Amino acid sequence: MSTLKLASRLDVIKPSATIAVAQKARELSAAGKDVLSFSLGEPDFPTPESICEAAHAAIRAGATHYTTARGVQELREVIVETSAKRRGGVRHRPEEVVVTVGAKHALFNLALALYGPGDEVIIPAPYWVSYPEQVRLVGATAVIAETTEEQGFRLQPETLRAAITDRTRALILCTPSNPTGSAYDADSLKALLEVCAEHDFWIIVDEIYGELIYGGFENRSALELAPELKDRMVVVDGVSKTYAMTGWRIGWLLAPTQVANACDTLQSQSTSNPTAVAQYAALAALTGPQEPVVEMCAAFERRRDLIIGRINAIDGLHARMPEGAFYAFVDARALVGRHAAGKRIESDVDLAGYLLDEACCALVPGTAFGAPGYLRMSYATSEDQIETGMARIAAAVAKLS
Ligand SMILES: Cc1ncc(COP(=O)(O)O)c(C=O)c1O
Questions:
Q1: Domain co-membership, 260 together with 282
Q2: Is residue 174 part of a domain?
Q3: 94: domain range?
Q4: CA-CA to 121 of 20 to 30 Å: which in 168, 342, 376, 395?
């Protein structure tokens, strides 16, 4: 093997823990084990047929060439309309929209465009795995602001205030959240935005799960609650979760003109443009029938109720009822320190390993999200799998001493 070195910027980042767990589960499955995966962050539903049909039609109509770097005009116009509808009428211009290769790419563009060495970016924990890694990759510092379950995993104004310094360049909010499923209600979000208004930094709001909301929870966008902060706010969204389109890789950001232009320039020198046919599929998703989304949400809500009930029936596990997304965030701290066949469970990572071996269930350890002692369970899976998996987990937990 060559002794040539990799770039030193890679020293500060780790591979995605969620993808690693999914990979291990796949390997065990390939080896013939009946592994039930609760690890993946994607809807288990197929992309709705009407969207696939529209993509076929787009290919036949010639959507097989480069497009403008920031995405085709028709899609950006539709995104503007959809966003205004979903965000209390606050309207962007099509030039303020950049279509990206998934929402993750939108966030990566923002990291490159907005932060650098010496800058601090505030990230509430538990956080989505990629936020701190992207911040570190561009040489900035991720400042982790803790939240607790008692606070509904919502960042408190005083915690935010304490984290702000004169180096703060941005705050990244995710609502509803991966990994907790927790969403900000209007009052708690407003209180945070009031603190933001006292300072000068970018407010990045990741609303990729914004349409997956349950139990009549009234989800409000930061943009709608504080339109006066629009020139400092960037909204990240996409079709991956709402329309079961993770593999199509289409997301976007809505941003002030100078940020949108910077991301456009970055794309022109990196991806050139998001895949043409996928852009037309996203266009069809936003303009076509929305019934599949309603049906998917109803299924997620049933699964949420089922899995939270099953988790809370197990002695030693606890999970709060999430408002959105498709994750249960399980407090397993009571099980850390117990023994499995004489061996001490030292951490959530050990516990996830034990549940994979003993119950053949793949869960992601909370440490990956900055929340040691917790486990994340995705319920983007069938009710049958939830019933079977939870019975296995209950039996495995009962064996701990
Ligand atoms: C909070 C959050 N933001 C962004 C993304 C990325 O979405 P996409 O698949 O569109 O890149 C994910 C995917 O898991 C996510 O959970």
A1: yes
A2: yes
A3: 63-287
A4: 376
Partners of 343 in beta bridges: 340
Q: Other C-beta atoms within 10 Å of 62: how many?
A: 8
Q: What is the pLDDT of residues 152-191, one digit of tens each?
A: 999 999 999 999 999 999 999 999 999 999 999 999 999 9
Q: How far is ligand 1, taken at its centre, from the CA of residue 281, in Å? A: 18
CATH number of the domain where residue 18 is located: 3.90.1150.10
Pocket test for ligand 1, best of 42, 98, 104, 378 (most atoms within 8 A of CB): 104
pTM: 0.96
Closest ligand 1 atom to residue 239 Cα is 10
CA-CA distances (angstroms) from residue 196 to 87, 117, 120, 127, 136? 19, 22, 15, 19, 22
Q: In terms of domains, do 296 and 281 share one?
A: no
Q: Ligand 1 centre and the CA of 103: distance in Å?
A: 5
Question: pLDDT tens-digit profile of 90-143?
Answer: 999 999 999 999 999 999 999 999 999 999 999 999 999 999 999 999 999 999
Task: Report the run of H or E that residue 308 belongs to, with start and end.
Answer: helix 291-312
Domain count within the chain: 2
Q: Would residue 51 count as lying in a domain?
A: no
Taking CA atoms only, the protein residue closest to ligand 1 atom 1 is: 178
Residue nearest to atom 16 of ligand 1 (CA): 178
